[in-house]
Amino acid sequence: MTDVAHRPPGDPADDPQAEEKDEALDRIVQRGAPRLNRAWYDLLATATVAGLEIGFGVLALLLVEHETGSRLLGSLAFSIGFVALFLGHSELFTEGFLVPVTAVVAGAASWLALLRLWIGTLVGNLAGGWVAAWLIVTGLPELHASAVRSGSEYATSQLSGRTFALAVLAGAAITLLTRMQNGTENDVAKVFACVGIALVIVGGGLYHSILDSILVFAALDVGAPGIGYGDWLSWFTWTVAGNMLGGLGLVTLLRLVRSQERLAQWRRSGGEPQPSR
What we know:
Elements: H1 18-36, H2 40-68, H3 71-88, H4 98-105, H5 111-139, H6 144-155, H7 161-182, H8 187-203, H9 209-222, H10 229-258, H11 260-268
C-alpha cells in the first residue's frame, strides 16, 4: 500500500473531485499559517480596520432601511461591508474559524497562536466598530431612529433557544462564506458569495456578534432608552457562543473530517507545504 504521506493530492481513480478538494485544503492551510503568525500590532490593526469596514456596510444598511423601510434591500446594501473585507484583506472574528483552525490541525501553527488570533481580532473588531458607530450617528442624525430601532432589538432580545439558533446560523453562514471563497480563485464568484451571505445574515435577521454589535453601539451612542452596555455584553456573550458553535461545529469540523487524509499528510511533513500535481 502506498504511504499516504507521499501521495499527491487526490486520486482521480478513486474520486474525480479528490484532487480539487485537496488543492482547496492546501490553499486554506497556506493562507491560514501566516495569519496566525503575525505580530500583535499587525493583528490588531487588521482587525480594527475590519471593524471600520464592516461599519460602512452598517451605514449602507441604515441608509437604505431609512429610505425604503426594507430590511431585504438593506441587506443587499450591507454586502458592501463583506466586499470591503474581501478586497481589503481585513478580518472579522467570525472569519477566524475555518482557515486558522485548519492550519492548526494541519500542524502549520499552534493552538496558542489561534487563541491569540481570536482575542486580538475580537478586540480590534469591536474597537473599530465602536468608532464607526459613533461616526455614523454623529454625522448622520437622520439615522438615529433607525439605529435605535435596530440596536435595541438586539440588546433587549431574550437569551433563548431561538436567539441562540439565530447566532448558530450566522456563524455557520459566515464560515460558509469563507469556505466558498477558499474553494475558488474566481474573484467575481467571491464577490457574489459576499452578496449572497449578506442577504442570508442581514435579510434573515440572524445574530452576528460583530455586525449587530455596531448597531447596538450606534443605539447606545444616541442614548436609546432602556439599554446599556451591560445589556450589550450579555447579548454579545450569548451570540459569540452561538457563532462559534455554528462556525466551528457545523462547517469547520465537517470540513476537517472530510479532509482528514490530507491533513495527516500535512502533519507528517511538520506543517510544510505539500507537493501538488
